[in-house]
């Protein structure tokens, strides 16, 4: 977990090494290294590299282990090397202050962390099978601390009956032969937070993944394989966004507003811009570095802070994705989402983000897709109202009821659950198939400038069930939070989310906001966003960063 800290906490009386602070974390105060631009994946790699380098310099043979956690790392050492490992790590902690934690078996005491440079911290080492080396890392903003979850574990493997046995389960092997071939890997090799490296052996992926990095960490050759649980296909993100402060856009919307179907359809609150997109992209940069490319779909608009020349992002005009452009401009999210599979250069697997949806903690692509390519969807407890379309139905209810009628006719199933306001995993080929099968309703939805009575909700209603009924989608759950800016005790709910940071994704929605609400809401939401996502993304202009 990434813990919020108090940047104005009183400094301790004792002198600390340069670049360090003593900060409150939970019930304790911890020594923390302060560095700029930290991301979870970078912190993980830094700690793994630190321990491996120290062991290499001390002549301790070791190998990186594919552990079961994605933010922490693991190194295997023969259990006969316990004494040398303790000596090496104590020396390392004396140069770079940090902590040691006994992981297997877990120490039964209220104080689970011990200063790694203290001799007393290493007493009883012969009874411990896994140790975790921990360096708390604080961002320069003073808002984040990367803690225990980003440590590097040292596993003591024992030799028994001609086999090396691990002290706990891993994602690689239940045992190794005592003597085996070694190879070198990148620090990111065994974390699912990172995309695969570009390799000549995988030509279809050559343009995807991390640029080749120095492969300087030793591991066993047996561990370097692609298992059936790994996702090897590229995944893009598509944002839909509008700048409601743009006078040209306001003029286009006013000229087209005669087509309003329902007063909520043209609600100004649907288009209010609080720079949510900036913070949503920051959340992707911090917590989902495996995303291959970001496509920003707009009505010929570009955020003032966006660096269009940045690698990994492309701005796409509505004119590039609508087959029939004579009805543009369009202000109907149903129409736009029904065209997203037309984005030029889009990968087969992609995730649709609205700009009010955020990644709340480190997350792997497995939250959105199965390794076999199937997409996931996340049913809500909210039900789609039963019965036919009624005059008093809200536009989103109309679009869902229209979908239900189509799927009942095609599959003989009645859909009931709406979906959570999460990122939406999609497959381009499935959307193309849906458009071929339901060409007329897709065309009618695309032609509706505002939400209309003939709309279908393609992304968050039709696609999940169609993919499920045809064997290419599965229901799942995801740690999730939903906040509406008009909800009671909004401030307390934002504070709770910031403190716990336990939601994999969350939505901050404002669909019924009026212009009168904006100032009060911004006084709450901007400080929250800055505290949660203080690290600028590479998509921001240098001046913005």
From TrEMBL:
Transmembrane segments: none annotated. Residues 495-544 form the Stealth protein CR4 conserved region domain. One of its GO terms (molecular function) is transferase activity, transferring phosphorus-containing groups. One of its GO terms (biological process) is polysaccharide biosynthetic process. The keyword Transferase applies. Residues 270-375 form the Stealth protein CR2 conserved region domain. It comes from Streptomyces sp. gb1(2016). The keyword RNA-binding does not apply. Residues 201-221 are annotated as: Disordered. Residues 420-466 form the Stealth protein CR3 conserved region domain. Belongs to the stealth family. This is Sugar phosphotransferase. InterPro entries: Stealth, Stealth_CR1, Stealth_CR2, Stealth_CR3, Stealth_CR4. Residues 233-258 form the Stealth protein CR1 conserved region domain.
